[in-house]
Amino acid sequence: MTRRNQSELDLTPMIDVTFLILIFFMVTASFSMQRAIETPNPENDLASRTAVAQDRDPIRLHVDRHGSFLLMATDWQKELVGKQELVSELAAAKLATPMITDLLIEVESAARLQALVDAMDAATIAGFHQFQLTEIASELI
After folding, report:
1. What is the spatial order of strands in the sheet that 59-63 belongs to?
2. How far is CA 96 from CA 56, 127, 129, in A?
3. What integer pLDDT is reported at residue 37 of this predicted model?
């Protein structure tokens, strides 16, 4: 019986050390908070108590399922490909119509999320700070 007891190893100290190392790394690890994308709250059907004075129609940005953008205003529209081109055109539209501060982003339901993130990022860089997101069914287009 003594040979059998000698061949077995006591794993308790190794398990204790493993848990101590695990606790050490959990306590000392620095957790970085990821930046979140701020999205506007969905509008409800209740009437607003404040009147919003909007002199002109907002600039609309359409994001399609292929990742291309269509920038539309009341008197013009431009089809854009790529984030850099979108930033420059949004900045030009913002300079041309400084009284418009809102941007209406229309997204097809089959569009990639990266295209929406690029559109919101480009709008923020161009100076638009308020977005209104609308989802459009892809089969209607």
Report:
1. 77-80, 69-72, 59-63, 102-108, 130-136
2. 13, 12, 17
3. 64
pLDDT tens by residue, 23-50:
998 888 766 555 666 666 666 655 556 5
Alpha helices in 29-133 (DSSP H): 83-96, 113-126
All residues at 6 or more sequence positions from 36 whose CB lies less than 8 Å from its CB, including other chains: none
Domain 59-140: top CATH class? alpha beta
User: 93 to each of 22, 45, 107, 125, how far by Cα in Å?
Assistant: 54, 31, 20, 13
Domain ranges for the chain, please list them: 59-140
C-beta separation of 103 from 72 below 8 A: no
Is there a contact between 120 and 130 (Cβ–Cβ < 8 Å)?
no
pLDDT tens digits, one per residue of 76-134: 888 988 889 999 999 998 888 877 778 899 999 888 889 989 999 999 998 888 888 88
pLDDT above 90 (res 58): no
Amino acid at 16: D
